[in-house]
Amino acid sequence: MKLNRQMIKAVIFDMDGTLYASDEIRKQFAAAAYHTLAKVKRIPLARAQESIEKRRGELKTMSGFSIPYTLTLRSFDIPITIWHKENIDFFDPRDYLHADKKLRQTLVELKKDFYLAVMTNNNKVQTDRVLEGLELVGLFDRIYTYNSFQILKPDPAFFRKSAQGLGVEPAACLFVGDRYDVDLQPAKELGMQILEVKGPEDIYGLVSSTLKKE
Prior knowledge:
5-stranded parallel β-sheet; 10 helices; 2 domains; Rossmann fold; alpha/beta
């Protein structure tokens, strides 16, 4: 995708599925979601799993996109604070991650020219754990989680406030994410440039190709 590099002052990254890709962590999030619904609604775990996956299927049919577990649980009126507490206690993503030296070097190079931020629907505890597991601590100028504003993507207010926190206009931001409906469409509608990726491998070449200096 052709980007207007001269306009970009900040690069904002989604986290899960963007800065890392892990089937095991995805399974852990799913299991944590089943556990949370079963606990809150006082129903058997198997029924909770069936209910969640059925609801995800219904939401996907309506939206055309796969729906994250956070947004699926919200459709069951599960408070986000409860979901976050449960998934924090349920698993630690550091158990499934390792240092990504290529990603770290890419971010080090990007940081020379751009503000860097993470913006995720995850909570601060799990976000800090992920960045620690990837050995990316200290590379981002801002880290925005649900705890920052009590807002979830795809709410455009989350994107707007994140740009404001970096001291730039939305038009000066590049948003990098793996979900078009949750990450990229709302960013684009706000005036941000967007880049769709399927994991960190798609980020490694940002400096040498997509955001190469003229």
